[in-house]
Structures are given as C-alpha cells and as structure tokens.
Design a protein that fits this description.
Elements lengths: L6 H14 L11 H40 L4 H10 L6 H10 L1 H11 L1
Helix pairs in contact: 1-2, 2-4, 4-5
C-alpha cells in the first residue's frame, strides 16, 4: 500500500477552523484545539439566543401595546382578553406596529374592541 502524506488535508482543516474564529481573543483565534472548542460553544450560544431573541421581540411588542392601551384606561391583559373573546385574530407584532406608527388607526381598532 502506498504512503499517504496528510499535510494538505490537515492544513485545509486547520485553516477552516481558524477562519471561523477570526476576531476571537487570545489563543482561541490561533490554536486549533481552543478554536474548535470555541466554535462548539459559539454554536450552542447562537442556537439558544435565537430563541431568546424571539421572546425579546414579543416582550417589546407587549410593552408597546400596553403603553398605548393604558392611555385609553384599559390594562393590557383585559385588552387581550376582549380580543380573544371577540375572536379577533391580529398578532401582537402588527398591533405594536399600528400602536407606534399609526396611532389613529390603532385608536379606531380600540373603539371596535371596547
């Protein structure tokens, strides 16, 4: 069996790992073992924080809606309760956008609900 030298393959793998860790600090950007571990952790954090980002957005929408609804003298929970009872299906993202950018449209929406 012929001898296979692994230099090209090994360097390609090393370059790929280190290119993914550009900008990392200390040995994590220059040492292959530390870089591999940093990549694994970064992937785990990225996955978890994608979920967190969605929850953060939803909280922001709720705050925006609650601020406008409170001016009308209704609490956020009562407002959402009335929407549910009347079977009005408008998602919070759209309502938050209306509340912030088109207050007159949102006030008409509020009158329809109340």
């Amino acid at each position: 069996m012929t001898r296979v030298k692994r230099g090209v393959t090994k360097m390609k793998r090393r370059r790929n790992v280190l290119s993914q860790t550009k900008g990392y600090r200390f040995g994590r950007s220059t040492k292959e073992a530390a870089a591999k571990e940093a990549i694994v952790h970064a992937g785990a954090y990225a996955f978890a924080h994608r979920k967190d980002k969605k929850a953060d957005k939803r909280r922001l929408w709720q705050v925006k809606i609650a601020a406008v609804v409170k001016e009308q003298g209704i609490s956020y929970s009562k407002f959402i309760g009335v929407l549910t009872k009347k079977n009005i299906k408008v998602d919070r993202k759209i309502m938050a956008d209306l509340a912030q950018n088109n207050p007159e449209t949102f006030s008409r929406f509020l009158k329809q609900v109340a």
